[in-house]
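Memo to structure team: turn this sequence into structure tokens by end of day. - J.P.
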Amino acid sequence: MGFRFDFVRKAHPIKKAQEGRPLTQQQLLAAPLSPAQPSPADPRYFPSAFDQFLTSKVYGINDDTYRHYMRSDIERGREIARVLSPWSSLQRKDVLDIGCGYGGLLIVMKEAGAKTISGIEIDQERLDWAALRLGALDHPAELLRLDICDQKSLPQLGLFDVILAQDILEHVLDPVAAIRNISALLRPGGVVYVQVGNKFSPDQLLADHHYKLPGITMLSRAQAIDYWQIRGGRDPSEYGVGYWREEKYYRHVCSRAGVKLHRTDHFSSPDEILWYAEAISQVCKLLDGNPWPDVRPALARRMHRRMRKIVELYVHASRQLPSIESQPDLVAQACDAIVGRLLTGVWRLVGVKEPGSSSQ
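Reply from structure team:
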């Protein structure tokens, strides 16, 4: 593509700052100490029947990635608890996990001191395994087969202090309804953890997180299904992704529902931009070839054009940063905007339900 990276600096270890309202020193000292945690691979988290199920489960596409994801739920839950800590303790809180899967996040929430744990899921098989795992650990939980987009389901659930929506909003077919209902389930001052894939990130462009298809996040849902069918030969009803949106979309919809979103990860160093140089180079190499010979030309052109635009933005930023090196605040703002909006693989957001707000 003829791009050259002119901005070269020595990379240093990156420390990601966390946004939030940190607990005061007095609050931290008063908080009960957590007991030593078992290893995430502890057999108690994976009863033999469940372990055998995960080993033999066939998803039909990208199996290894899905198996690894399902086996990492304890680690993911502990990371969520860490990210939430500046915003809310989990001690004595009512916690709901939306799309609770096999129950791993709920296990962690209970270990972190939650008073009650609840989970909703549209897949009954996953709910059954979640019940088995939680029961084996003697963690009482309310597990219901419900769709977060269905407002009629809400009265069954009650209100919660903490709601988890990890890797959920890109799968629902009505994200506005889902966010509105999440807000309705939150008590005033309650928090929601939202994690959603960044459609622009180089790793998504090279091989999306769900199907490992280059460029698919640059397409509309109908176009993505077309591309997915060509590559996988599957029925359209099996396509499991809803709509890829930008971070500002989620901020806007949450704000209208009375929830203010805050990004938890911030990036202030040019080294954090340079860290993505190799991935951007790989995107360039991909576009220099012919990655979509089997896809309709219109779709291939759209993916190529949009991916090229992201590369151009990256190159432009890398060339402009040296000119503002003497203005550290401006450098930090630029780095945060570029990495946070375009490059990071996922957006991790914490939303706070504003007192007196309406979710309608």
